[in-house]
Amino acid sequence: MVKLILEEIINLIMNIENTQSQMRKGILEFCILSIIRRGEAYPSDIVEEMRTSGLHILEGTLYPLLTRLKNAEMLTYRWVESNSGPPRKYFSLTPKGEAFYKELEQTWQELANGVNALANKNSNEPLNQ
């Protein structure tokens, strides 16, 4: 009996973690583009800003995403010499990336408004309202 309960708890935790991971993945691109949109961004700075916002990301997750966005012509980059090590690659949005960001921003607003409306609805309200 205890083993069954523990298995159920483990399954529940794994399902929650999977759902949380999928939710984060869904907004990751938008968050990264939001940072780059404000000006040229170095990947380590993106990771740090995400972390301070409570959205943890590893560089191993970020670099493939930046490469994919660059290959899709959403981002461009330039090399900047560094006083402490190899040159650094700074990313910025292309005009195509800016248009893509605006579409994502509109989608985010619609989703956030809808989710907030549902999550904040009083449990005493009828379903059809």
Distinctive features:
9% strand, two-stranded antiparallel sheet, flat, Arc Repressor Mutant, subunit A, 129 residues
Please, could you describe this protein's structure?
By secondary structure, this protein is mainly alpha-helical. It has a domain of 87 residues: Winged helix-like DNA-binding domain superfamily/Winged helix DNA-binding domain (Arc Repressor Mutant, subunit A), CATH 1.10.10.10. The chain is 65% helix and 9% strand. The chain contains 4 helices and 2 strands, in the order αααββα. Strands 1-2 form a two-stranded antiparallel ribbon. Helix 1 crosses helix 4. The longest helix is centred in the first third of the chain and has 36 residues. The protein starts with a helix and ends in a 10-residue tail after the last helix. The model has no long low-confidence stretch (mean pLDDT 88).
Specify Rg, calculated over alpha carbons.
20 Å
Kindly identify the CATH topology of one domain.
Arc Repressor Mutant, subunit A
Helix/sheet category: mainly alpha
Q: Which consecutive residue ranges, at least 5 long each, have pLDDT under 50?
A: none
What is the end-to-end distance? 43 Å
Which percent range describes the beta-strand content?
5-15%
Arithmetic mean of pLDDT: 88
CATH superfamily of one domain: Winged helix-like DNA-binding domain superfamily/Winged helix DNA-binding domain
The total beta strand count reads 2
Number of helices: 4
Bin the helical content: 55-70%
Report the biggest beta sheet as strand number plus sense, adding barrel if it closes. Answer: 2 strands, antiparallel
User: Can you tell me the overall shape?
Assistant: flat
What series of H and E elements makes up the topology?
Answer: HHHEEH
Examine the secondary-structure arrangement and name the CATH architecture of one domain: Orthogonal Bundle
CATH class of one domain: Mainly Alpha
The neighbouring-strand order within the major sheet is: 1-2
